[in-house]
Input
Amino acid sequence: MEVVRHSPQTPQTQSSAYRLAFADEEFMMSEELRGVRFQLEYLKVEQRLREAGINSTVVLFGGARIPEPGKPAWAAKSEIAKKNLEANAIYYDEARRFARLASLTSKTLDFAEYVVATGGGPGVMEAGNRGAADVGAPSIGYNIVLPHEQAPNTYVTPQFSFNFHYFATRKIHFLMRAKVVAIFPGGFGTMDEFFEALTLIQTGRMERIPLLLFGKAFWSRVLNLEALAEEGTISPDDFKLFSFVDTAEEGWEIVRKTYNLPAIETEA
Output
């Protein structure tokens, strides 16, 4: 690269054709190079996590709009939405506590296993990264480029604060190391990730892991999965692929028993 920088300034060297391929932004961003960009997005994150020795993760999904308890529902578009978002703020605390339990377990394993990973944004994602930070543990943030700018929350470990252009490569990294997927109340994105994981497990494309739906009252109201079973489009046995839980402790107990993990001492 140094040799190229010090090349004589001529019409030939200033032409885009002369640029090294990987330094030519116009070329790298072309439609024909989409497959290469996919590969680069995958490899950059994979290399960083491998170098850090992170083998497995605990993934938290949930609404970006859910506020911290005691704070206003900034995203509410109506009074009823404000009331409900602020009531669902209890799940901010549950996500934070669940992330603490995962991170305390991870600490006993030199942060090689059960490292908290979120989408890196606000709401439940922030709570997950914050819970890890509460106990001095690293955590991962998988941000995504969106039309409305989403900055990483301040609790993501900086060296694990990643940014994706493609949802597809982001989804791969969410699930390829996941030993646990915890789904908290949320909207389309949260449901997308839930059904993605559920489908992969149902079809045998992904190892069965604890898939936890936090907030039985919330999910029973917004998802009528029993109707799918009645219509015959899913099997009644498919309900065994996930578990409803309401508290961090209840959820982590399922994880602990699944993997025969030791009980974790938590501070009051």
Remarks:
- The longest helix spans residues 34-52.
